[in-house]
Specification:
This protein has helices at residues 3-9, 13-20, 31-37, 56-77, 81-95; strands at residues 40-43, 48-50, 101-103, 109-111. By secondary structure, it is an alpha+beta fold. Helix 2 (13-20) runs antiparallel to helix 4 (56-77) and helix 4 packs across helix 5. The longest helix is centred in the middle third of the chain and has 22 residues, at 56-77. It comes from Marinibaculum pumilum.
Length: 112
């Protein structure tokens, strides 16, 4: 198996679930809820971005959790954390609900 395939095989569904997860409290929204409401969007680099100031703290918590997952996978695979994040970004964007806002690498927002 090529190193690229090994790298991709190392990114398990469990890791993706952890990267998508958000802390849950009475006031917290899940990533999917924020995407559906348009208060946050997904970025090309595997992180979320708040589109509404009220979502900033929830997005920061989600991104911290994602960063930890990406770092763990990067260490396991011996690759840069940015490479792991970009692989996850594709999966996260694919799983985002229709109508989600996606920040492209050129800085423009598009709706899925």
């Amino acid at each position: 198996m090529t190193s690229r395939r090994l790298f991709l095989a190392g990114l398990t569904a469990g890791g993706l679930a952890a990267a998508l997860a958000a802390p849950r409290s009475a006031a917290a929204q899940t990533p999917e809820e924020m995407l559906r409401a348009g208060t946050a969007g997904e970025r090309f680099d595997g992180y979320m971005e708040a589109r509404d100031p009220g979502a900033a703290s929830a997005v920061a918590a989600i991104n911290a959790k994602r960063r930890a997952v990406y770092q763990e996978r990067a260490t396991q695979q011996g690759v840069p954390v940015e490479a792991v994040a970009k692989v996850y970004a594709g999966e996260i964007i694919n799983r985002a609900p229709p109508g989600s806002w996606i920040l492209q690498q050129n800085g423009s927002w598009v709706q899925k």
